[in-house]
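Look over both lines before class:
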Amino acid sequence: MKTQANLIRVGWILEHNGRQWTVLKTSITKPGKGGAFIQVEMRDLNSGNKTNERFRTEDTVEKLTSDQKDCQYLYKDGTNLIFMDKETYDQFEIPEEMLGDSVAFLQDNMDVTVNFIEGKAVGVDLPQHVVLTIKETEPYLKGQTVTTSYKPAIMENGLRVMIPPFVVTGEKIVVSTADCSYVERAK
């Protein structure tokens, strides 16, 4: 299915230069002069090689249709991630490198959607948001107010997230899996 390049999302499977690629990262850049473009980091499904491609936002790309199954992430076994099909209870593995940076968001027993092409698992669609605990951040200083300034925080899974100054170590926050950004305090 042809689609606009500026709509490319992490986890998509693309047909490009006669090969199948899974999208690991995307970044849209709007330079001051000239048209906007999207930088896409992709991994070849067959060879495992990575590449970076730059598409103009008005370009079209071929998005491959994949079968999707509701699955549950179970655990990590060496360099493989173990998932279970929620319908048949069959377990299967996906190499950790195939998912790129999104591996950090996986939590035991998390419900995810796994994409299959020709019976082979090729990608995972994560929930939009996950709840994480702040492992380390700068202390809250009395008198600080909510401003546009953010401070860095290290999460329980090792990710670095910019958070508002009033959020402290040990709190649970909601983080966007799309861009690893702070959404809100967890309820």
Observations:
- Residues 72 and 111 are 5 Å apart (CA to CA).
- The chain has a mean pLDDT of 87.
- The longest strand covers residues 19-29.
